UniProtKB/TrEMBL annotation:
<dbReference type="GO" id="GO:0004342">
    <property type="term" value="F:glucosamine-6-phosphate deaminase activity"/>
</dbReference>
<dbReference type="InterPro" id="IPR052960">
    <property type="entry name" value="GlcN6P_deaminase-like"/>
</dbReference>
<keyword id="KW-0119">Carbohydrate metabolism</keyword>
<feature type="active site" description="Proton acceptor; for ring-opening step">
    <location>
        <position position="144"/>
    </location>
</feature>
<dbReference type="InterPro" id="IPR004547">
    <property type="entry name" value="Glucosamine6P_isomerase"/>
</dbReference>
<comment type="function">
    <text>Catalyzes the reversible isomerization-deamination of glucosamine 6-phosphate (GlcN6P) to form fructose 6-phosphate (Fru6P) and ammonium ion.</text>
</comment>
<protein>
    <recommendedName>
        <fullName>Glucosamine-6-phosphate deaminase</fullName>
        <ecNumber>3.5.99.6</ecNumber>
    </recommendedName>
</protein>
<dbReference type="GO" id="GO:0005975">
    <property type="term" value="P:carbohydrate metabolic process"/>
</dbReference>
<dbReference type="GO" id="GO:0006046">
    <property type="term" value="P:N-acetylglucosamine catabolic process"/>
</dbReference>
<feature type="active site" description="For ring-opening step">
    <location>
        <position position="149"/>
    </location>
</feature>
<dbReference type="GO" id="GO:0019262">
    <property type="term" value="P:N-acetylneuraminate catabolic process"/>
</dbReference>
<feature type="domain" description="Glucosamine/galactosamine-6-phosphate isomerase">
    <location>
        <begin position="8"/>
        <end position="229"/>
    </location>
</feature>
<comment type="pathway">
    <text>Amino-sugar metabolism; N-acetylneuraminate degradation; D-fructose 6-phosphate from N-acetylneuraminate: step 5/5.</text>
</comment>
<keyword id="KW-0378">Hydrolase</keyword>
<dbReference type="InterPro" id="IPR006148">
    <property type="entry name" value="Glc/Gal-6P_isomerase"/>
</dbReference>
<dbReference type="Pfam" id="PF01182">
    <property type="entry name" value="Glucosamine_iso"/>
</dbReference>
<dbReference type="InterPro" id="IPR037171">
    <property type="entry name" value="NagB/RpiA_transferase-like"/>
</dbReference>
Amino acid sequence: MKVETFETPQDAAKALAGEVAELIRTRAAEGKNVVLGLATGATPLPFYAELVRMHKEEGLSFANVISFNLDEYSGLDRDHPESYWYFMHTNLFNHIDIKPENINLPSGTVKDDEIAAHCAAYEQKIKDCGGIDLQILGIGRTGHIGFNEPGSDDTTVTRQVHLDELTRSDAAPAFGGIENVPTTAITMGVATIMGAREVALMAWGEKKASIVKKAVQGPVTVDVAASYLQKHPNAKFLLDKGAASLL
Ligand code: F6R
């Protein structure tokens, strides 16, 4: 696992967006698609802003991009302002030329008795598209990647999970109180993420420093899902100075 430290989140996001743009353009020149795994949350916002800028100012086309998001809150429909569907469209998809049929997110409104089939179909669709070329990640203060909370081992695939109380309390301000934060979500598993050919995890600020240290320098453990990335052949952490401050 590589660690790269940048002065600011914007610097890191620009570097990563530049790599993604190159991958997209190289594949486009070969007449091929790129499969991106995408994350939501505050962390990737400067990365998405840079991709939008490159589309608008430099003509970067996303016509050959297929996207799979990591996760979605259970119980939220697409129009809910805190749904990840809404987040992705507001912050990225509505501003670029990705084909709507190439956008994939788990559904927050699938019926209980259809969740297992929905998750299996999501895994299968990733495989049918040739697997994920590059998976973008943030990290939660529980060490989660996607919503793989402590206890998620490296055999886990897309499934419904219970959200950790720390994760719910971190989300509470956006929902106007912890009582409004969903208790469950559908997430890709650790094995799904580890199956990506390349992984890039971003983290900003001192609030993330101690969990970043555990993920990068601690033991590989089921208690910190991000620690499994130490075993990935092509994973890197892009950090700002605050997030890297305990390394
Ligand atoms: C989001 C996701 C989560 C977040 C993590 C960090 O799709 O899967 O793992 O990346 O909770 O969230 P922020 O970036 O808001 O600190």
